[in-house]
Amino acid sequence: MKLKYTLLVAALSSTALHAEVNISGFASITGGQVLSGSGVPQFGLEPTFLADYPIVSAYKEDFSLSPESLIGLQVSGDLGEGLSVTGQIVARGANDYDAEFEWAYVSYDINDSWTLQAGKKRLPLFYYSDFYDVGYAYVWMRAPADNYTWQIFNYEGVNLLYSGSIGDWGVTANVYTGREDDTENKLLSEFFFQTPTREIWEDILGGVVQLSYDWLELRFTHMRYTNKRFRNGEPEMWNGSDSRDGKFYGLAANADFGNVFILSEFNRLDLDGDLDTYMISAGYRFDSITPYIMYSNFEQKDGDDPEKHDTRAVGVRWDFHPSAAFKVQYDKVEDDSTALAVAGDSESLTLGIDLVF
Amino acid sequence: MKKLIGVVLLSSALNAFAGVSVVVHPSNDSSFDTSTIKRIFTGKEKSFSNGNKAIPVSQEAGNAVTDEFNNKALSKSSAQLKAYWSKLIFTGKGTPPKEVSNDAEVLKMVSANPDTIGFVSSDAVTDAVKVVQQY
Question: To the nearest whole angstrom, how far is the Cα of A138 from the nearest Cα of chain B?
Fold first, then answer.
């Protein structure tokens, strides 16, 4: 699969002899540790802070730079007349810095308002999903782990993008369809089931509408998909069926008054019952220093011992350089479930530098 | 000699308070207000009100006029603006305006291409361009 993308990018960039090629990139060098934590004794898990679910960025009681550090390179070839090709390669500490193509797509500007894209892209479920890796682009150390829990974060398919305005409101929207077949899903295989697990999300169909007006930004999204799963090659059965349908709903609202800003996100995944997540955050910009607070929550609505956890975080971002920011964040996680415990309670400290180039 | 240095220093100090002018080609008869300018320079508006394609031209990040424009016209610090564009660049949703190195280059581009819009220190403005907004 990797080879296929490499060839695709190579083919498209070499056929256009006069293509304008842009290389840009981003990196995060982040370290941290659990200060104190319960772990999950019933699963034999030591004190752990799961900072990023899909990547399995797990901090332990020993300081480590591996869980969240990453470097990404984006190569974009502009072939002219609205056609371009983009590849993004990311190497993560959590994967021993093995570089992988995470994005590889062709983009065609139909006109000023409409763009058609095809290939491998980030699944734009949440507000921060598609720039999750670019820490420099947001204030916190990471988008709240309690919300960004879903094991599939890329897809292969087609995306139609609209960008325009209505009066003083900026409007962007997109509709996308595709599938993802993750032969050895990291979160399920390495963390939750500890057995090789193939996770399939197919017939993905989703839409996003984003409205912005001066200080206010609103984002609405809906996505549906069909889930299939194989553990050790055996199909997982849900109520006698080897597939189940999921429906995702999301609303994000951000208000930015210059110095003061408030960020929020509310999401529901209906997958054999409702799984609700939300987060709220606020900060204040003192010139180049931005302290912030954040609260995020995950709650499964059904069952006697549902999955339920939340995080309180406080941190500071310092823009000490035109292209780099230093961040330090304290996180306190409470995990209230027994049978569906994720990583137990924990308090941790992470710090690091995010940069773009 | 000392006096001359004094005059030079004084005039460069005054330059810092010259203000920013947003300039377009003299033939561009579109209407502009602060909101339109903000949207064009943040990639949210891609055409002028006369229907022509709008090509914003920015200046290098180190220039004083760039900081002043970002603060006054876009209400963003240079770091905030960089974070804003990083989000768009790495999600394939937009590319920032081309950057040129000084006022003279902006004037050269804008006077030559009716689709461009740029900003310069107000005391650098010439007859070759039309001022549509001052900050």
Answer: 7
